[in-house]
Q: What sequence folds into this?
């Protein structure tokens, strides 16, 4: 199974930009990079997905360098409500989504 | 309207019992899944199912069985419950060949005593 590596936890303060980096050294040509967010007592929620370069939506930005062996999820101006677990995943179309341990982000006042 | 709904939200039962968790999706997706999240918060895929194939994670005991009356429903039946089955179970759905995003339900917290 495709495996990603990301920090176990991160702390931040309200209003700061948070960048969570994920390593995926064995990424295959057809794999996409997908990020999910999970709040306590809820199911994971799709945030953003990309293949290369930069993708931006109303929630976050995703930066993927040319070699695609890593990616960075950027959350602009976080608030307390962004406290959650963030999962980085490699996804090949048709395969099952396989989660790693995720990064626990704690946003402090 | 809830896109993926699971019932019950909480389930407390004794060892050895048989129980079912229901899942329904109104997104028109063709594939549904069951995930297990243990006390360490790791999410593990259990089953992937559409009307053509069932894919079973080989680590799932055969006491667990998915049952799909139609493409909008995927129920999880568990026989002879054990203490180690205590976890949060999430149902999810997606459309193969379309968007890669999965939509998850809010989970069922199963406690076996």
A:
């Amino acid at each position: 199974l495709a495996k990603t590596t990301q920090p176990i936890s991160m702390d931040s303060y309200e209003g700061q930009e948070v960048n969570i980096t994920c390593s995926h050294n064995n990424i295959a040509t057809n794999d996409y990079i997908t990020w999910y967010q999970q709040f306590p007592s809820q199911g994971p929620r799709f945030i953003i997905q990309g293949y290369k370069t930069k993708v931006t939506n109303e929630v976050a930005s995703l930066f993927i360098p040319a070699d695609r062996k890593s990616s960075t999820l950027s959350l602009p101006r976080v608030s307390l409500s962004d406290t959650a677990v963030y999962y980085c995943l490699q996804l090949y179309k048709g395969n099952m989504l396989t989660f790693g341990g995720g990064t626990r982000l704690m946003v402090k006042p | 309207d809830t896109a993926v709904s699971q019932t019950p939200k909480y389930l407390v039962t004794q060892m050895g019992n048989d129980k079912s968790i229901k899942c329904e999706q109104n997104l028109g997706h063709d594939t549904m899944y069951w995930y297990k999240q243990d006390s360490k918060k790791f999410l593990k895929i259990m089953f992937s199912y559409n009307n053509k194939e069932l894919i079973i994670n080989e680590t799932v005991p055969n006491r667990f069985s998915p049952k799909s009356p139609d493409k909008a429903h995927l129920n999880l039946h568990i026989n002879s419950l054990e203490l180690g089955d205590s976890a949060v179970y999430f149902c999810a759905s997606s459309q193969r060949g379309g968007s890669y995003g999965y939509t998850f339900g809010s989970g069922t917290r199963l406690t076996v005593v």
In short: Chain A touches chain B at residues 32, 34, 36, 41-46, 49, 85, 87, 91, 93-94, 96-99, 101-102 (CB under 8 Å). The mean pLDDT of chain A is 90. The CA atoms of residues 35 and 88 of chain A lie 5 Å apart. The two ends of chain A are 38 Å apart (CA to CA).
